[in-house]
Amino acid sequence: MTSETTKTERYAPSAIEPKWQAQWASSGLNDTPDQSDKPNFYFLTAFPYPSGDVHVGHWYAYAPADCAARFIRMHGRNVLFPMGFDAFGINAENAAIDRKLHPAVWTEKNMAQMRDQFMKMGAAIDWRREVITCYPEYYRWNQWMFLKFLEKGLAYRATAAVNWCPRDETVLANEQVINGRCERCETLVVKKDLTQWFYRITQYAEELLKFDGLDWPERVRVMQQNWIGRSEGAEIEFPVEGHRDAAIRFFTTRPDTIYGATFMVLAPEHPLVAVITTPGQRDSVEAYVAKARGVSEIDRTNEERAKTGVDTGAFATNVFSGQRIPIWIADYVLATYGTGAIMAVPAHDERDFAFAKQYRLPIKEVISSDGIEHDALAAAYSGPGTMVRSGPYTGTSSEVGKRTIASEAQKTGIGRPSVTYRLRDWLISRQRYWGPPIPIIYCDDCGAQPVPEDQLPVILPEIQDFRPDDTGISPLARHEEWYRVPCPKCGKPAVRETDVSDTFLDSAWYFLRYPSADFDDVPFDPEITRKWLPVHSYIGGNEHAVLHLLYSRFITMVLHDMGYLSFEEPYMRFRAHGLIIREGAKMSKTKGNVVNPDDYIERWGADTFRTYLMFLGPFEEGGDFRDAGISGVRRFLDRLWKTAHDAHTSGEPDTAVMRKLHQTIRKVGEDTARLSYNTAIAAMMEYMNVLRASERVAHRAEVEPLVQLVAPFAPHIAEELWEHFGHEHGVFESRWPSYDPALATVDEIELVVQVNGKVRGKIHVPRDIAQDAALALARADAGIARFVAGEPRKIIFVPGRLLNIVV
Length: 807
Hints:
Elements: H1 13-27, E1 40-45, H2 56-73, E2 78-80, E3 84-85, H3 90-98, H4 103-121, E4 131-132, H5 136-151, E5 155-165, E6 170-172, E7 177-178, E8 181-182, E9 190-199, H6 205-208, H7 218-228, E10 230-239, E11 247-252, E12 263-266, H8 272-276, H9 282-292, H10 297-300, E13 309-317, E14 324-330, E15 341-344, H11 350-359, E16 367-368, E17 386-387, H12 398-411, E18 415-421, E19 426-427, E20 429-430, E21 440-443, E22 447-450, H13 480-483, E23 484-486, E24 493-496, E25 500-501, H14 503-507, H15 510-513, H16 526-532, E26 537-541, H17 548-561, E27 574-577, E28 579-582, E29 585-586, H18 597-604, H19 606-615, E30 622-625, H20 627-646, H21 655-673, H22 677-691, H23 700-710, H24 715-724, H25 741-744, E31 748-755, E32 758-766, H26 771-780, H27 782-785, E33 794-798, E34 802-806
Parallel strand pairs: 1-2, 1-26, 3-4, 12-14, 26-27, 28-30, 31-34
Antiparallel strand pairs: 5-6, 5-9, 7-8, 9-19, 10-11, 10-18, 12-15, 13-14, 16-17, 20-25, 21-22, 21-24, 23-24, 28-29, 31-32, 33-34
């Protein structure tokens, strides 16, 4: 059977792509059943914020993910590939304010537009399971989880100094402050005391440090471990002179250096500052404290920044040395880390050394690298060694000293061995409008009361006066009808909580909702959840490594411990995609180098655009988008189109070509499975070159499997050619072609790769590899790729011996 479209000799994406998009939608091809004779496979990619445009960054995240999902389906799996929208948050609210629209109107318009763009991409999404976080049927379950966390003591309210964005007029979590600025609008962040709601993520710090059984990139695991920041040491107290009930409790990872503590440092916000400061120093201390509150934590801990501080006039006693030591305050010590106090050992800590030098404080060596006492130090020594000038412990190795001092502190009642974390509890309150209301009611008599479960969801009212103002009154508090309610416990007049919850809560569990999106009585149905979860494979951005991914793991662990889930980790396999740049520069509207996918689709077709993005470079590193490069991919698809239409069925296929075909099937399958899309495409291009190397017309048996290999990358043309070949069912209902191991064996050589004439590596390649395929393999090698920026100016290829890339 040959359609009218396929009778044309010319490949015309504008004709075939809308045809297949409509056919996939009407046939329900992408609607995944919960029960199938095929094993279930949950393939997830991070859902987008509804900005209104599926830009090239979205394409780079979603088209390769779609390729992987289609590839897995062709391997006989029942693949769930859902999509939704992370629709709440400050971004949507600010955009709506700028356009003088309500956030709900802005969001709905954008979601409709983006669905249409996803369809044009050819994405095989099961839209029946769509999840939209700003709909009450979703955020009802955010509120339900909050109540469950509250019951277990994992949600609590406290007054704390928080990160405040003056432009967005809301609190930011520590993770949302980048270099002292708001991650969204880049406004300088300030500190502000507010009563907020928190989740006790620190209670799960140890569990979050484990990655047993997870297939995650090492760099992502390290980023999370560093953010959690586990440190072993001891907590010890030094009494404050003249204050019988005051003692400074501090944590140290180096108890072996305690004899070298020559002064103490408190964070400016430490509660003891106001108690112990002497009258003569009070004005200076208060001025310093006020100034420190305007400096971000990132800046305060910047190693390059000059250390500043003020003497409180008070003294503590080093209980091990008996020495009377001064107490200072300095903003390089944070109230949110450890106890907000440190013993300063300038001889063995770089920050303390710089501080002591600046303020002429004593520097006492107590750890010697060679076991010899030194009278003067040019710099702090922070390594291991032998304890010196340390009373009865002199001569002890520093490693033994750590344990011995901690044990002695515990025996004498002034301390104990301890573990501390950099991780802080998750601040979930936000002082804006566009978010899920926190389900709490405040009563003067009963205090904070949870909204009863049967009254969920607490609907976010659709109000027009939603903009924040400088009065400090929440937009929701101005909506009297919603704000004032009876107390659920005593029935007296009460008021609702006017903070909404952090949108990272929305995305922390959305993967659980997709399979159960049509259930209205539970957040996730137990039976359906057992069939699909945990997620088998997840693709997202590196920017979420210590935000979304960490929060998802925490929420999953808590729900598991509560008995709602049978698994503790949400994502068994995670891969982070790279970033697209254009001609060597990051894309931005100000630089005028942003790529509009719609323009390229109109000219080249969605299949060409998809395939080109995957051909740019290693998926996990990203690539440099250059207009000149896309024509090569289009030529490949044009040749595929013509070769398939010219193919014949008479006689037998060529033996040498079939050997190359089996090698290509093996190569494309292995590379696609590990998301090495660029080398998989290079292998298909190389095979096409073999097909066209002679003037003979290709046999259908030599072409048909290539159409199947191309299908996940360029689905529209593959469907059209599969139909042209007369198949009753679509190409995505066929099985991925198999290969004969004997035929697929490749005769390999070691190819030397130079960049600008210098050897940068060696790669194993087929003996008869073509130049384009060799270049793709070289650029996929991390050791070589770092020397290749942008498109090469010239390629020098000596088959079987050398590849020289001139950049």
